[in-house]
Structure to design on (122 residues):
């Protein structure tokens, strides 16, 4: 009987979602904010979080509306936030996108200036 830490199971589910999403053709143009909203589960899961990350790897998160992005992040689901933020970072790499930079500065304390007062998001 193996005693596997819950955190390890969470990451396995996340990576299963990534693998599922990587099966989608990155050149598929039908993936937009509505498609992502339609495929969102009722309750957020670690597997869906990994799926969102894979959409970012393929560049599809550029099409996610700011409203839907906000709705995802307001759920405070740890793995969904990780998948979205990393996916947005990959999707917008090299673009100097101001919106993405602002979003990261709110959620990644290391990006705040040393004299800034950290925002409490919990």
């Amino acid at each position: 009987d193996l005693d596997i830490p819950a955190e390890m199971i969470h990451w396995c589910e996340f990576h299963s979602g990534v693998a599922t999403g990587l099966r989608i053709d990155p050149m598929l143009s039908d993936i937009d904010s509505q498609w992502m909203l339609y495929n969102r589960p009722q309750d957020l899961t670690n597997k869906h979080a990994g799926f969102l990350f894979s959409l970012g790897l393929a560049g599809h998160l550029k099409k996610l509306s700011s409203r839907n992005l906000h709705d995802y992040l307001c759920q405070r689901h740890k793995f969904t936030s990780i998948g979205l933020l990393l996916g947005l970072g990959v999707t917008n790499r090299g673009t100097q996108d101001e919106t993405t930079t602002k979003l990261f500065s709110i959620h990644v304390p290391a990006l705040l200036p040393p004299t800034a007062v950290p925002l409490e998001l919990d």
Observations:
- Helices lie at 6-22, 33-38, 46-57, 66-74, 78-91, 98-107.
- The CA atoms of residues 60 and 112 lie 27 Å apart.
- DSSP finds six helices and no strands in the chain.
- The chain has a mean pLDDT of 89.
